[in-house]
Amino acid sequence: MRTIIETINFLLTLYSFLLLMRVLFSWLRIDPFTNPIARFLYSMTEPLLEPIRSILPPVGMIDFSTLVAFILIIALQQALSILTAGL
After folding, report:
1. Is the per-residue pLDDT at 62 higher than 90?
2. pLDDT digit string (tens) for 4-59?
3. Residues 76, 42, 36, CA angle at the centre, nearest 5°?
4. Which of 41, 66, 79, 82 ranks highest by number of CB atoms within 10 Å?
5. Which range of residues forms the domain containing residue 72?
6. Whole-structure pTM over 0.70, yes or no?
């Protein structure tokens, strides 16, 4: 059981890294339609960010969906950590 939880925790960390890369690419204004790395990042992160965007109210030109995704991932990792400590 511990191995499964550690694997899930690793995958969540990897996904956090993908989200961070997407944020950096958006700041650098790299086009996701022409850059294959940006296209990969957008295709991997958009399935999580799109539902968050649909729930959050718009706040000008600022997109808080990535921040909410990071908070959700951290909460999941903390829950997994508590679960692992109980094993």
Report:
1. no
2. 999 999 999 999 999 999 999 989 988 888 999 999 999 999 999 999 999 998 88
3. 135
4. 41
5. 2-85
6. yes
Residues 6 or more apart whose Cβ sits within 8 Å of residue 17: none
Return the SS3 of 62: strand
Rounded CA gap, 87 and 2, in Å?
Answer: 7
Q: Is 76 exposed, middle or buried (CB count within 10 Å of its CB: 0-12, 13-18, 19+)?
A: middle
Torsion of CA 44, 46, 48, 49, to 10 degrees: 140
Number of domains in the chain: 1
> Taking residues 56-67, what's their average pLDDT?
89
Residue 60 reports pLDDT greater than 90: no
How far is the CA of 51 from the CAs of 3, 65, 86, in angstroms? Answer: 30, 9, 32
Selection from 32, 10, 16 nearest residue 68 by Cα: 16
